[in-house]
Description:
By secondary structure, the chain is mainly α. A hairpin with a 6-residue loop joins strand 1 and strand 2. The protein is built from 15 helices and four strands.
Amino acid sequence: MQKMGVENGEGAAAIKDKYKQSLGISSAADAGNTSKCFDDDGRSKRTGSVWTASAHIITAVIGSGVLSLAWAIAQLGWIAGPTVMLLFSFVTYYTAALLADCYRSGDPVTGKRNYTYMEAVESNLGGLKVKMCGLIQYLNLFGTAIGYTIAASISMMAIKRTNCFHESGGKNPCHISSNPYMILFGITEIIFSQIPDFDQIWWLSIIAAVMSFTYSSIGLALGIAKVAANGTISGSLTGVRIGTVTQAQKIWGSFQALGDIAFAYSYSMILIEIQDTIKSPPSEAKTMKKATLLSVGVTTAFYMLCGCMGYAAFGDLSPGNLLTGFGIFNPFWLLDIANAAIVIHLVGAYQVYSQPLFAFVEKWAAEKWPGNEFIIKEIKIPIPGFRPYNLNLFRLVWRTVFVIVSTVISMLLPFFNDVVGLLGAIGFWPLTVYIPVEMYIAQKKIAKWSSRWICLQLLSIACLIISIAAAAGSIAGVVLDLKIYKPFQTSF
């Protein structure tokens, strides 16, 4: 999710390499050598397979977006909810298959490799579309930082509230403000943002995968347990009823649900990087299509289970964050584990998503003012028992300001569902549908107004309409929430 205003492959690679390294992907090069140790581009021999690529995709995809799926299905109902989720999974798989064919430019077997999503965009489209893609990606990065701050604070508040309630024997309502927890999360991120290449630490993705599966599985298990305890499946065919909400709220809520589901499926930006780990023969595109089919199938099954069991448990009252719906119910310690897993996951995920933006701004500043010591000078600070720490004043100030701004916005708009829906709406059509479709058309030289071209354009237009509706619903949700929320004052 990066690159704005960078007009060369080197700039794109420098930034997008952050994703590859955070997934444990090697990028060492030894140009000109082709042997048992090196591939046709001189880089170390790739060893990835269908299984490793599938594992990377599943690990990257299943995250905090799963927590809002029960709420999304509640807005749409038992018929439309699962149907929309299946449609999103089909579109995601189809466009990912188109994207797989864009890994190599020219010949699909021997053509030039595009190591990153942005390199593929530049090779196939170039010009204004590259800058547009970069702008959307950076906007997504910034929005994701806000969304993760909100989600982490909700989980920290949930831990405090459940423990407070049980300590008081249910006598204390335990109203808590989210602001101190957002500030605490922000301070933590300021510290971690100064650790060099924090997102490249090899065990980070392992911890993220374990944590995301932990809280998702606990949410699923508690949903199943609650349905069993209720003895009935809650919910209705059409979702939240008019009367419980106004007709306008029903419409906006349904639109916002589309954004929430889109956010859960927004991972096209990493697919080229994962494809760059796959060995050949057979061609990387062929292997990647199999991996995408497998991973989208597994992810959709997991999403359907979490979303549907959450709706079956809570019905029309399904919460925006599934885990908060179980409230003070026992076993509260299990909820504490799930919420702690969310916080741990998001502390690292915040850095993985923010580091590419950090890197781009720092690279741009260094090129803009190459002789400015404030920007380029490294001050060595000795640390007993460790290597000296290289302190860069520009990095310290810029990254701290970034975290502070994202934290303040989170405190002003602490609406998890609305932010997730808006992120999904902003990123889904351009990054998951429009750009892969346009790259595929350019790569395969599909004739304008041919039947294939028309079908691809109709798919793109349909997804654009859905994204616009989702964005409108999320913005309307923010407006409605602001009518009852007082920034920096309200406790939950």
